[in-house]
């Protein structure tokens, strides 16, 4: 089996080299299938390495995004049906899955760790929206695309932050509680922050956004928590299926938005990726030092960094779709998700190998 992974890695390198030659020669269209093959082959080959396995899913997303950029017609409509109509149900399904992995104990952390939870939630809804607004103003992007940068900054945490916290040897219990609380507060804070910061770029209907978040997040998560409490013991298979469904759903949402916003991405793609990357990395940095500022120990500071820097890109994408601006406002969230997974995995790998320092006195 190891030989198979090595062969696939070789195929990936070969595909990339040929694709680069074609691009240099000006045959960009012909390079598409080879770039797709590169990401797919590399993703599978990474499964053979314990160190690189965590990047396999992100590479598959890159393959899907590349496919959407080269062949957008297959991801916009199918037999007259607009695939964008699937975004909201998919997010609801993902949030239901999130709920099935939660319980009342996830909220008890507020009592057990009030200082850490308050600092984490406050920092999250202060740092990322402020960074998003600043970067949007400096970017020079069209208003709707700039508003997408603010939208991802105003979104709550996602479940990915809990996985990264675990891998980074951070405070997992604190991470889960911050994610749960920020998600439940999202119907209030996200619309108000978007109205305050994003209202300078596009029209924000606060009540409509509150309802959109409630139906996409609060109701499905509530149903998931009830399902977890009363039925999950008789449906253990869901614990295996729901994470896979969530991964597929997020990938599919990103592909649909990429296809819809293809023309904008081709014009500002590199700069948007750069801005989003800066947003994400500064979130980690400011989050970590917010913990240091309040004399939190190293484990909790790592949690602050991850909880501040990682956002719920799926929800932000869904909100952009509900606003009717999926191809513009939805672009930054679609880019943020895959980049966040890469940077988060790298950060977790670094911290996993680094001993925890003594608590700051």
Explain what the structure shows:
The chain is mostly helical and 361 residues long. The chain contains 15 helices and 2 strands. It has helices at residues 2-24, 28-46, 56-70, 87-100, 105-112, 114-139, 143-154, 160-167, 172-197, 206-230, 237-260, 262-293, 298-309, 313-322, 331-352; strands at 77-78, 81-82. A two-stranded antiparallel sheet has the order 1-2. β1 and β2 form a beta hairpin. It is globular, with a radius of gyration of 20 Å. The N and C termini lie far apart (51 Å).
Quick recap:
The protein is 76% helix and 1% strand. It is an all-alpha fold.
Rg estimate, integer Å? 20 Å
What is the SS-derived class?
A: mainly alpha
Spatial separation of the terminal alpha carbons: 51 Å
Question: Could you spell the SSE succession in H and E letters?
Answer: HHHEEHHHHHHHHHHHH
Helix content: over 70%
Unreliable stretches (pLDDT < 50, length at least 5) are: none
Outline type = globular
Largest sheet: 2 strands, antiparallel
Give me the number of helical elements. 15
Strand order of the largest sheet: 1-2
Give the amount of beta strand, in percent.
under 5%
């Amino acid at each position: 089996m190891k030989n198979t992974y090595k062969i696939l890695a070789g195929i990936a390198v070969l595909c990339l080299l040929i694709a680069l030659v074609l691009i240099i020669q000006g045959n960009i269209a012909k390079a598409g299938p080879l770039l797709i093959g590169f990401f797919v082959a590399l993703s599978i080959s990474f499964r053979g390495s314990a160190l690189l396995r965590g990047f396999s899913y992100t590479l598959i997303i890159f393959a899907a995004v590349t496919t959407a950029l080269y062949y957008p017609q297959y991801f916009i409509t199918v037999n007259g049906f607009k695939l964008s109509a699937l975004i909201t149900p998919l997010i609801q399904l993902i949030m239901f899955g999130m709920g099935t992995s939660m319980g009342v104990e996830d909220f008890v952390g507020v009592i057990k760790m009030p200082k850490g939870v308050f600092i984490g939630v406050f920092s999250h809804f202060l740092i990322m929206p402020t960074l998003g607004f600043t970067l949007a103003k400096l970017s020079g992007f069209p208003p709707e695309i700039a508003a997408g940068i603010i939208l991802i900054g105003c979104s709550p945490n996602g479940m990915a932050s809990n996985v990264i916290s675990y891998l980074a040897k951070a405070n997992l219990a604190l991470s889960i509680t911050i994610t749960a609380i920020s998600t439940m507060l999202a119907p209030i804070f996200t619309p108000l922050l978007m109205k305050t910061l994003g209202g300078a770029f596009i029209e924000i209907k606060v009540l409509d956004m509150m309802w959109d978040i409630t139906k996409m997040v609060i109701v499905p998560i509530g149903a998931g928590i009830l399902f977890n409490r009363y039925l999950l013991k008789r449906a253990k298979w869901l614990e295996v299926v729901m994470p896979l469904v969530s991964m597929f759903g997020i990938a599919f949402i990103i592909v649909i938005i990429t296809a819809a916003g293809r023309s904008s991405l081709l014009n500002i793609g590199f700069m948007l990726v750069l801005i989003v990357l800066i947003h994400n990395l500064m979130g980690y940095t400011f989050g970590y030092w917010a913990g240091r500022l309040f004399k939190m120990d190293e484990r909790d500071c790592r949690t602050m960094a991850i909880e501040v820097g990682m956002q719920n890109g799926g929800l932000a994408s869904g909100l952009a779709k509900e606003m009717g601006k999926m191809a513009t406002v939805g672009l930054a969230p679609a880019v943020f998700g895959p980049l966040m997974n890469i940077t988060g995995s790298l950060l977790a790998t670094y911290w996993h190998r680094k001993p925890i320092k003594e608590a700051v006195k």
